[in-house]
Amino acid sequence: MTGIKRALISVSDKTGVTELARALAGMGVEILSTGGTASALRAAGIAVTDVSKVTGFPEIMDGRVKTLHPAIHGGLLARRDRDSQAMAQHAIRPIDLAVINLYPFEATVAKPGCSREEAIENIDIGGPAMIRAAAKNHAFVAVVVDPADYAGILAELGSNAGALNEATRRRLARKAYAHTASYDAAIWRYLEDREGDGSLPERLPVGLHRQQELRYGENPHQRAALYRLPTAAPGTLLEARLHQGKPLSFNNLADADAALECAKALPVPACVIVKHANPCGVGLGGSSDPDVVPSLLRAYEKAYATDPESAFGGVIACNALVDGEFAATVVGRQFLEVIVAPEFSAEALAAFAAKPNLRVLATGPLPDAATPSLRLQQIEGGVLVQDKDVATVTHEQLRVVSRRQPTAQELNDALFAWSVIRFVKSNAIVFCHDGATLGIGAGQMSRVMSARIAAWKAAEAKLDIRGAAMASDAFFPFRDGIDAAATHGISVVIQPGGSMRDEEVIRAADEHGMAMLFTGLRHFRH
Length: 526
Prior knowledge:
By secondary structure, the protein is an alpha/beta fold. It folds into 3 domains: 6-195, Rossmann fold (3-Layer(aba) Sandwich); 242-362, AICAR transformylase, duplication domain (Cytidine Deaminase, domain 2), CATH 3.40.140.20; 387-518, Cytidine Deaminase, domain 2 (3-Layer(aba) Sandwich), CATH 3.40.140. It contains 19 helices and 21 strands. The chain has helices spanning 17-26, 35-43, 51-55, 70-77, 84-89, 105-110, 116-121, 126-136, 150-159, 166-195, 250-264, 296-306, 308-311, 324-333, 346-352, 408-421, 447-460, 480-487, 502-511; strands at residues 6-10, 30-33, 49-50, 97-100, 142-144, 209-213, 225-228, 241-244, 270-275, 278-284, 314-318, 336-341, 359-362, 374-379, 382-387, 399-400, 429-433, 436-441, 469-472, 492-495, 515-518. The strands form 5 sheets. Strands 8-13-12-11-9-10 form a 6-stranded mixed sheet. A 6-stranded mixed sheet has the order 16-21-20-19-17-18, with helices on both faces. β2 (30-33), α2 and β3 form a beta-alpha-beta unit. The two termini are 53 Å apart.
């Protein structure tokens, strides 16, 4: 490829553009530019040719039309080995380098109070057209969309007689198409959120941005990275501030997200301990005793007591400020990989500093856990898409199907258990009492086995489950699960209902003097 003689620079993000243009001009490259970019370069003393001078047509419609012209697109698309006659006939000069980034659509619509008109005016038209043209013609043209590439481009031009090699141009073209695809996905998402009919879309542009390369995936032989959705919101791990510790691993991120999602769904203050994607302990800071002042430390004590063995090396998520007393207790008691919370006091951060390998993440204010969104899960050759499971039930929505009515305490215990079960892998059974999980059985092929494991874990932790609530994420197909719970003194069962043998299951509850509640909702989690 011959050296770069002519470059078009038109950028919204002007990071490093003055230095780039000055270096190009020093190499004898002619620089074309538009609007604000041209003004910025001139102010820096760099010679610039306005695009309007090349096209012979002024910018019109408040800048909506300025680069959409054969003099520009012909220069970008011309094949140097076959289009010379057309170029000469229409006085089109080649453009060898296109440095372009787009109107900040995502930043614009993220601003509070952004109007629809403002959003629409920040949809770039000429920029994507030029990027795609240059990328298509990468055999002859280099396209640069990321300021992070400027230094490498200049270094290669300096060492390669003012030219960029084919591998570089191909890499830049791939990056350019990913850039415009993500941009279009963000626009689609904005319009879909405001004007969609509520159905799942026929096409689902995703627009992922790599935020962080990870050391490896679930296992050391697997490559991994963290990608960001255009809709990533505050109060998530992607926005969290890492106060101390190494960057999170693939497994750390998965566990921390599971813990944080559960914590968001619970009353404040609450604490969730997760190990291998499942809660091993969940606690609320309040008590059935009205004289007890709720505290996050009490929530942690309840969560830890559920399964101290599994809590070792786990992840903690809290939905309230972590203070020094809480931090000192955790540091003195257990080994921990990650702790995530909305904020930490100075005393808490000082206490955690004694464990420098502990990752401490502050998310800022947590969003409403009931905010609907889509969840994506990859399978071989495709992606499963579903609504986020945000369904909940209230006291009034529960249906008592047993002869015995539940007490007020049993109702509260059952609803807390039902809040937790949504975040436990199926088949799931959870025992709860007074804002604390007492036993959790997760991920078994048999619901009875999950119940046995939950009871065994409670016994291991020396927790009394007599009088506790039992939640099941799906219906009981047989009465054996109820019979097993009765042997441990479970007093109330909350479950979706809907089995062919519901009458048999209800009859078992009545025989054992249990209260039974149907939710009409299932909470499978795979």
